[in-house]
Design brief:
- The structure holds 2 protein chains of 2 kinds.
- In chain A, the strands form 3 sheets. Chain A has a 6-stranded parallel sheet with strand order 1-10-7-4-2-3, sandwiched between helices. Chain A has a 4-stranded mixed sheet with strand order 8-5-6-9. In chain A, strands 11-12-13 form a 3-stranded antiparallel sheet.
- In chain A, 50% of the residues are buried.
- Chain A has helices spanning 5-14, 16-38, 43-59, 61-74, 85-98, 110-114, 117-123, 133-141, 157-168, 176-193, 219-225, 243-258, 293-297, 312-316, 320-323, 334-345, 352-355, 362-366, 373-388, 391-403, 407-423, 438-441, 454-461; strands spanning 78-82, 103-106, 127-130, 196-199, 203-205, 210-215, 229-235, 239-240, 265-269, 283-289, 425-426, 429-430, 446-447.
- Chain A is built from 23 helices and 13 strands.
- In chain A, helix 2 packs across helix 12 (243-258) and helix 16 (334-345) packs across helix 19 (373-388).
- By secondary structure, chain A is α/β, with parallel strands linked by helices.
- Chain B has helices spanning 10-14, 17-29, 45-50, 53-68, 79-92, 97-109, 113-119, 139-144, 149-157, 179-182, 184-200, 211-224, 233-239, and strands at residues 2-6, 32-35, 74-76, 110-112, 131-136, 161-164, 205-208, 229-232.
- The longest helix of chain B is centred in the C-terminal third of the chain and has 17 residues, at 184-200.
- Chain B is globular and about 50 Å long.
- Classes of the chains: A alpha/beta, B alpha/beta.
- At the A-B interface, helix 1, helix 18, helix 19, helix 20 and helix 21 of A face helix 1, helix 2, helix 3, helix 4 and helix 8 of B.
Amino acid sequence: VTTTFPLRVRRALEDKALGAALGNVSMQLRTRRAMAFASLADADAIRDQARKAKLDVLRTWPAQLEAFEARVRANGVDVHWADTAETANRIVTELASRYGAKRVAKAKSMVSEEIHLNAALEAAGIEVVETDLGEYIVQLAGDRPSHIVAPIIHLTRADVGRVMHDRIHTPLTDDPATLGRFAREKLRDVFLTADMGITGANFGVVETGTICLVTNEGNGRMVTTLPRVHVVLMGIEKLVPTLSDLDALLKVLPRSATGQKLTAYTSLINGPRRGSDHCGPEALHLILLDNGRSQLYAGDCAEILGCIRCGACMNACPVYTSIGGHAYGDTYPGPVGAVLTPGLRGLHGWADLPNASSLCGACREVCPIRLDIPRMLLALRKAATPHYAPPWIRYAMHGFALTANRPRLYRLATRTLRWLLRRGAEGEWVRRVPGPGRQWTRTRDLRAPARRSFQEQWRAQS
Amino acid sequence: VTTAVLFHTCLVNDFFPNVGFAVVKVLKHLGYEVDVPAAQTCCGQPAFNAGFHDAARVAARHTIRLLERTQGPIVIPSGSCGDMVIHQFAALFEDDAAWRSRAEAVAGRCLEFSALVARDLDRLAPASMQATVAYHPSCHLVRGLGLDRPPRIIIDAIGGVVPRAIPADDECCGFGGFFSVKHADISSRMLERKLDAIAACQAERLISCDMGCLLHLGGGLHRRGSNVKVQHLAELLAEALP
């Protein structure tokens, strides 16, 4: 990323179409989520079970990963471990060359975005086609997804029509049905001719070695059954202990993500094609990706590894719905991204993200796993302050620490500050504050402080 | 007579003394003597939220020591300062068992203003008054302290007051302390949306339980030239008491 966070924010805030789209779509998704949970009896107990399942796995993580690996291997799946994005990309590229794959059909996978897999495959001369409609349009536009569930939340219908017209020569229209028909035709050909299918994974069930995939368009089913080889890319945090835990998670994930009781397709994959099977890939490879996750596990924000990527925190977040996903600058936007990005990549270059929050707690309220994102943002701020806090805040905090337990000094300091602010007031309002405070008065007036504090008046009375 | 301790918070002390007097008036009507410890400074929330935990602990220890020397319920007219003292003090002393238990003992005596008043609402007989009010539920009050109903119940108990619901009222106003200055662009967009929502409900007054939100919302309203009057819940209630 070459731009700075404040610059990306400014650009996003100036984009009127983006603002309108974010407002509408996030409101729709929020309403649908609320309705879907209202129809779920014992929603709280199910969320508790989902949370417990994810956090239990993390508590004994290495053992769980080994047990899962053994199960998956016993199911006839080849398992690869990748500690970095580069390793994962190399493994996929080598697999493509081993199987002579020239064309790859991909289902939606945020992990593949995280490691920039498409670029790596294209550099090796392999054609990659995204088959999730939103991701397909992102790919045609040479863009990046701006929401983990609704990748083109930042585009209007007209934008989509323009991109498809320019890139695959559809007639110029913004009619979703027409555009969908053209995309379907193009993608049908990809499903039938691809040599390799690549998907992510929503869950890996330790008990059975099952890989679970949740999709709506049917492309996931095509990609996992039609090509000769299926490669699954999975972050190592995606485990759940048992099928009964999976049941709880499948009750909360679609409801949180799209307000559905169940997605149109829920695939439980237990291995490649076996003797009597009439379809399925000849070979199934699972790549387990670390890429910073085990390092994150060692710190204060390990809890974020329980995230199931539903995107509910984005839809609920007043910051995300103001600036959109691209402003966050990396794969995972919104509240979860503000923890995950610095967690996976380090604070250097990403220290703005945990600070860009009013700590309103809307994310924690809607998170199906009840992840305490505000707590983690605070932990990251604490880690960031020695290196990244602006000087004026450091001076202010130094002064604060000197006076906070010396009431007389504190009163003197606050009285002086009140007097200084009142000097710039017109009547009871300050229209321009100097110093860092000018950021406040750019868009807001400041109530002038009291001439005499409550304490001063109270003491005078009694 | 029971004594109630008023932890007035910085914003009330330095910007909104009238809120302090309104809280005192309500507490007296509930039959309390009011003790205002003179040595109180700040709960440390700005430092805590900015990531300066050492500075926050200086303020927290001072506040705990000071409040330990008092007796009776401690009333805090702010959801966010209330959340700081009631929940975050313990988090600050995670690795310090002695201070942690002192923090928890003090936290156990603390009550946010609306929580205390709603508990004893039948002891008040507010007079009727004419006003349309929009109530802004602050994030820390609702999501931090779990107090969604109490302020609404109190407003409903004042005869003649017509509540006007703010659309999507659970959305943050964009204040967030230093956030409003460090990320002023984002904060201002959030404020803009909230002010539009407030304008849509055409109320004469905007009521909340957090002067942080009201400093922000009031400043935004004034910049817009709006004449919506901004008040702490205590001020509204005090007006209806003799």
